[in-house]
Structure formats: structure tokens, C-alpha cells
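To close the chapter, one final illustration. This time we ask the reader to focus less on the individual chains and more on the assembly as a whole: which components sit near each other, and how the overall shape emerges from the parts.
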Amino acid sequence: MTVLNERERPKKPLSPWKPKKTSAQKAVAFPGVKSLNGRWGYLYVAPFVIMFAVFGLAPVIYSVYISFFQWDPLGSSTFTGLRNFNLLLHDSDLWLALRNTFSIWALSTFPQMVMAIGLANILRNTRLRGKSFFRTILLVPNITSVIAITIVFSQLFGRDFGIINLLLEGLGLNHHIDFIEGVIPSHIQIATMITWRWIGYNTLIFLASMLAIPNELYESSSVDGATKWQQFRYVTLPQLKNTITFVLVVGTIGGLQVFAEPQQLAADGGSSKQFLTLTLFLFNQAFVNNKYGYAAAIGIFITFIVLIISAVNFVITRKISNDGTR
Amino acid sequence: MTTITKAKTPRWRKVPKTNYILLSIIVFLSIFPFYWMFVVASNTNAEISKSPPSLIPGGRFLIVAEKVLTAQSVYFSTALLNTFIVGISIAVAQVIFSAIAGFAFAKLDFRGRKGLILFVVGTMMLPSQLGIIPLFMLVKNLRMIDTLYALIVPALITAFGVFWMRQIIDAQIPNELLEAASIDGASVPRIFFRIVLPIVRQSGFVLGLFAFLAAWNDYLWPTIVLQSPKNFTLQVALTQLKPMYGLDYGLQMGGAFLATAPLLILFIFVGRKLVTGVMDGAVKG
Amino acid sequence: MRNKIITKFSARALVASVASIAIVAGVFTTPAKAADPVTIRIWTFGDVIQRNLVAEYKALHPEVTLEIKKSDLDPLNGTNMVTACSAKNGPDVVATEVSYSGYWRSYPKCFQDLRQMKTTGEPSTGIPAGQTASDIQKNYLPWRWQQGVGFDGSVIGIPTDVGGLEVAYRIDLFKKAGLPTDREAVAKLWPTWDAFIATGQKYISKLSAANKKAGVGFIDNAGTIYAAIMNQGTAKYYSNDGTETGKLIYSTNPQVKLAWNTTIKATNAGIGTRIGQYTSDWNIGMNKGTFATILAPAWMMDYIKAQAPDTAGKWDIASIPGGGGNQGGTQLGIPSYAQNKQAAYDFLTWYLAPAQQLKVFKTYGLFPSASVLYNDPALIGYKDPFFNNAPVGKIYAAGVQKLKPIFEGKLQRAIDTAIGAGLGRVAAKKQTADKSWAQVLNDLKKVVNN
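The assembled structure is written out below.
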């Protein structure tokens, strides 16, 4: 039924962080339905706002308050003003965590995106047998618990006897890779776990936008004698722009919160903190060192990073949509 | 006639064999960790600790399964039931509340709407670990410690859910449709229940499913607020299997496998729906 | 042998119960409240609370329900206990591992002072009535007992096991390398840590080129030497100045530098395999003979048996260099916000009584902290066939009695972690020893100040 509906409606991949503007509504930034009584809106958002304020917001605000204190949850707490922030900005661990977070983010986002687009490109072929089987299997990794899967992966990635190193040895590499101690190797291990979990999901998203590309575009290009690669490069890829940005944004939100995987590998983030991520850093300061004020300051720093990324995103998206309308 | 078909299908050439091989590799990689869990769970630790390790399942799975099911203070079946209660409550509540709020954010014109939704999106990006201590104090003051409510109530609503439903409703329901209905005299609640809800049913189902999965696999928060075994969820119950020092891989993986099996079974039934849902959400929201 | 134990048991029980009858008789006039159903909630990790003993206690006390919740160690002793105490909430009994005792001794307010509790008395099992923690202190190893004492002198935990540390070694591999294999002779190889390292180098020099390339080593992980040496001293990172946290001495305590330097020396001598303990690589290495020695706490013997059953009889146990060792162990305490303190205390004193500790040792290999057992033939005479019939009871008992009390401070675990990471960096050849130590000091400054 939904399939039929889809056919009738004009399809257009859209960027999710920005309200979609149809041509008629372009003038109004954030349109509502005029003839509906807007005041119902207060009633309708009330349950959400109240619950969110109590269980989502209040704890976070309390944390902001805590960040101005040297806060011992079991003992006395003293107001220290901006001391936590000052210390934090001079803490090399923070910058290390930032580096690691971005490295893991990049390693888990970009190869995954390329693979997902490639896979989607294979899956869209209508003559592919077992289409729906392949699509479904792709989502299976998404349902597992991170903890169980980390144990599996750390066995596979073992330095001396792990299957991956044994395979590499079989391929002629005679130096075993330490997927814990090495900086990049450890990031690769974590990125692999993330990729394994999310690649199917992203493939489906790309597949959906590919299926939404109007056939006419391909027809005219094949009339022009374009090769398969040219079609992909000049027809498919430009149409995926918005989806690519969507996947990037979701990946960034997830990437900034990478926590369970590194924590399960080594709770302190490795001997040279080579896979200490921002969120793990926050967690350890709060729950291992019991420095809640300091941890709260880290949380605020993360928020700052998010704001910067959002700004960058905004600029890029603008540019892309301008390109698109040209 | 022939020219039309020719024009329409030239790019769907026969699927190259390499593509099938590639897909088979992906399928293998997707499944392998589950298979490995089973291999570890069904072999003795010693067999797993050989090099190269045994790659075929052993005969010990039933023994391990029995150990898991009868282990001291694990109460696997109770935990399974608890996890279902929590997961379904959260899923249903999130879908309903998110749809209501998402509808208002997408289609109702009230003051402060824009600022509010931007704010919600902003808070989505904060690490949830930040608020755990205050949240614990809150939950304790509400006398919900060691009850399933402690898991359900704070999760009834998520910023993500509202945002997602807003996007879906915004994209799937043309304003003209609602305009027409309201001109016909339908009230806002009627429009919501009669028009909006049926259209976003599919997407709501996917949101619910993801909420269910998240609740199923949640670990940190349940282990803090749940205290007595009769209230454990599966992930908390599984930690009961850990030996004092080190790891009993077999037992651990046996537990993990048994805890994942219901999801795999569920997946057989809803997998396709999930696929359509994810793809739907991608195009429209 | 088994009969002997039983007679020993019953004799002890008889004496104790005769003694307690008198006391019980005194209490008898008050109405017996024992029949009221009560639930004791226990937070623990791993198998600190043994299922056999739980069943036994339930038989003794049908009115008591034991609700056991296990968590992983760090979430339990770190997150959960902090959250519970700060929210004035908590179970009735909680298990604290020794790596966290330094932290919790700074917060005795989170625990019931067990000196103020009195046993109800358990005639059938020999627990007299009216016993406070001070009364039973004499049963336990003195330095081990101190790990459950708060900075203000209150008793916040009673020890379960003691993780006596000795050297487990592979007879077959020693033989191949031309080393002696008899445990007395092996112990003589390494009266000191330097001698231990020299032995390791000798072992390495005998290895074939292929083995060397495959990463075979003498000890599983040279980094484990650090903790062993630290526990042989009298102070770690803090000295007792009567304050809540203690005074930091990590940069001046010679023991820290000694432990660090010796570990670095062992690492640079290349005697370790660098395999991390409790990884799957470690388990496999144990089977393959990738390493010939492990610094093994008493509780690790069971782990080795389970992971590498095929190596039965190939192992033996020799005394640790430097004399005496410890690693691990747990205390049971009662949080100050517990709801059933009396029932909890009765359970605790029964569970940790020498008789029960002996049962745990026999069935599970956890070495008792109840030092009154160290003369008990049931313990001293215990030999383990898996370890070539080594008199493990005797060896470990001798080892743990050589140790002295160590003052532990609040941030000890964080400091341990930072130093461990520093050793790891040297082992992974990421930094020189000097640079790594400089970073440790830098990291510690943050741990202490921020």
C-alpha cells in the first residue's frame, strides 16, 4: 500500500535537520496549517515538554550547575567558579580524547559510507535475485547488544591468536598487529564494530534514495551514451547529496557518543589513552575518579563541539542546497 | 514497443556474478559474530582456547543453556518477561507521545514552536551519561528505585522520537490534506486520530521497534536502578553469569546468545517491515 | 582426609555451641523473633557469595530470603555504591574489592560501623551471641582486616578471601629450558626479583628462533610484577596522617620507584609475552605454553584449571620472589542505609566465619582470610593434583603471613591505573621508561588536583 502511495507522490530525498520547503511554502520558514487552531499545539506538546523537562532537561541543568563546583557526591562540595573549565582546557587528555573521537568517527563514517553506497548500488538492481533476503540480513547486526558483540570482536582481533591476525599471517604479513596498543589499529577495531553494526542501516537509507531518483535521468543519460560509471558519478551521486549529509549528521551524533565499545576494550581507554573518547573521558571522570564537577565540565565542552559542528553543517548544507537549485 | 522497453531497462543488465559473491561475503560477515557466539557457547573453554580455535559448534550448548537458565540469581525467564514489559511499554509510549508532539511541531502554528524544536534537537546531542546521578536522585525521590517504572518512565519520551515523528509527519502529510479536512469541520483531535495517525503508522512502527531494541540492550541505567533479581532485565541478568575473576567465555556467550535469540526470532517476523520502515523514513524523513 | 575435616568441624562446632548455649539461655526470655520473614539484599560481583553456602544458610534460616544482585566490579564498587550512598539508599550487604578499599575507607559514613553490631547467635553453627566486629577480629589475618577499616577506625567490612600471590610455573617447559623443576629448587632460583628476571633471561636464551618469533616468553605479563612488589612494602601512595584521605607520598615513597624500576627492568629484559591477562590470547597462550610462569593469586588456580584442563599436572607452585604476595580479595560490609542491618550482620558473621571460609576454599579455591585456619591441617595439608600435588595450602598460608599492613588511600585505584598505563606504554615500546614516568607524574597530578 505504501509503495503505491510513494509512486503517486513526487519523491525527493531531503535533509532532515532543515524543514523541507515545497515551492509553495518557500516564503514561510516554518509553516503550519493555517486553518488549524494553533493553540491545540500547547496541549499536544505539553506531555512531551513536561516529561522532557523533568527527566531529560532537569538532570542536565543540574549537571551544568555541578560544573562550577568541586563536587564530591559523597562528601562536601565547594564552589570553584570556572576552575574546572580552566583545568579542562589545559588537560592534554581532553585534546587526546577529541583527536581519538574524530579519528574513530572518520574511520567509521567514510569507509562505511563508500561501502554502503556501493552496496546500495548493487541492491537496487531489479534483476537481483533474493533482493529482500539481502536487505533483511543487512539489518541483523543492528539488533545486538554492544557488550556481547565487543567480546566477540575482541576475540577476533586478538594480537597473538585472533582470527584476523591469523588470516593476515596467511596473507603473508609476518608481523602481528596489536589492535589494542596501536593507536590507529585500535581505532580500526572500534570503527569496525561500529561499521559492522550500522552499515546495513545506512545501505538501506542510500538504497531508498536511489530508488527515488527519477528514471528519466538515467534514460536521458543512457541516450547520451554514458557508461555505467559515468551514470553513477553524474546522475546517482549528485542525487544522493542530501542523504549523504543526513548520514553524516547522524554519524556525527553517534560518533561523539562512542562509549561502550572502547570501554569494553579497556576501561581506561588504553595505556596511552589511545582510544579514550570524549564520552568515555566524561564517564571515567564521573564514575571512576568521582569528579562530577569536572565531568560536567566535559559534558559542556562536548556540547560546544556539537554546536560548532552544527554551525559547520549549516554552512555546508546551505552551499549544497544552493548548488542543487542552480 | 521494443524501443520503450529498451529505453526503460538498459541499465538493468544481468547482475554480475561478482556482485553475488560480494553480497554473500556481506551476509557472511553480518551473521558470523552470531555464529561465533554459538561456537564459543557450545564448546569448552579449552577448545576455544586452542590455536587455531575450533570453528565448528561443539556439543555443550545444552549444558551451557541449562547453566544459564538455572544459574544463581539469574532468573532468565523472569528477566525475559521483564524486558518485554519494559521494551513494549517504552515502544508504545514513545510512538504515541512522539506522534502527538511531532504532529503539533509539524503542523500546528503556535508561538515558540520553532525555538522549542531547535532546542529539542540540540539536547539530542548531549551525552546521556551526563545526567545519570541527578536522574538517579530524581527516580529515588519518586520511589521508583528497584521497579520497572525506573526504566520505563524516564524513557517514555525521547527528543529523538519527537524529532523523527515531526520529520515524518512534515514530509508525509501535505498541508493541503489537513486544510481540506479542517474546512470540512474536523477538529484537531479528530484530524490527528483519523488522518495523521493512520498515515504515519508504518513509520511509527519502526520508531517503536528501535525504541524496543534500545530498551532491550540498555545496560548501564538498569544495572544502577534495579536491585532485586525479580526485577532484572536480560542485560542485568546476564552480568550475573560472570565469574569472580576473569571471564567464562562459554557461559557469557551462551547467555548473550540466549538473550539475542528472541530478537532474532522477532526479526524473522518483522525484519521486512523494518526494512521498509527504514527505507520509508529515509526518503521521507 | 575428608573424615578428619569432618571431625575437626564437629569438634569445633561442639565447643562453640556449648559456649553459646549459656549465652542463648540468657537471651531466651525475650520472645524469639526469628520467625519473621526477612529479605537480605546483597550486592556483589562474581562468586563472592557462593551458591552452596547460600543454600546452607537458607536451610538454617527458612525465614530469610537472600536476594543477590551481581554487577561487574567497577560498576558495583564505583558507580552503583556511590550513587546509592549519595541518594541515601542501598542494599543490606555489599561486597567491596580490595582495590576499592582505599576509596571507601575515606567514606565510613556510607557504612554501618560493624563494631556496633552484635550477633544474635547461632548455636547450631557455633556463632556465639553478642559478638561485635571487634570480638571476631582475632580470627582474621591482621593486615587483611585493616583493609576493611575506615579512616576513623570504624569497621566497614570483614574480609572474605585473601588473594595470596605465588608463582605458578610449567614443569615441562622448565625442564626443556634446563631449569630445575622441583618447587623448592625453583624457589631458590629467585630469592629476589632480580634473580627472577635473570632466570627469565636464561629461559629466553634457550628458546628456539621460531619460538622467539612466535612471541614466547618466560612470564605471561611482566607488568604484573609491579603490583606484587607494591604489596610487599609497608606503604603505597599514601601515608596515614589521620585525615580522611591520608597524605600523598607516591612521588617520594621508595617502594613505588623500586616496583616501577624492577618492572621496567623485567620488561626491557624481554622476559614477558605482553599478553594481557584475562584476554582470549591469554587463555590460548596458557594452553599452548606461550609462557612458563604466571604470578598467580590463590583464586587464579581455578581459572587455570578451567581454561587449560589439558595442562593438568604440568603446573607447580613455587614461592614468590621477595617473600609473600597478595592480589585481590574482598570485604563484605553493611551500607549505612541498609534496612535489615541485624539480619545482614548475622548472615555476614556466619558467612565469613572460619568454618564457612574453609568450605569455600575446599570447593572453590578462594584462600581464607581467617588466619585461625592457617594451622588447620585441613588447609595446610591440602594438595592440588593439577599443580603436581603442590601443598598449595601451606605455600599460600606462608606467603600471606609474610605481608605487613599497608595503608591505602582514597585515590589509590586511579593512581594504580595511571601507573599501570605507564608500564603498558613502556611494554608496548611507545615511550621510554623515563618519558613514561614523567607522564605518569603528570597524569597523577591531574588525578589528585583536578
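Chain A has a mean pLDDT of 81. Chain A touches chain C at residues 73-75, 84, 87-88, 91-93, 154-155, 158-162, 176, 178, 180-181, 267-268, 270-273, 287-291, 294 (CB under 8 Å). With these observations in hand, you are ready for the problems at the end of the chapter.
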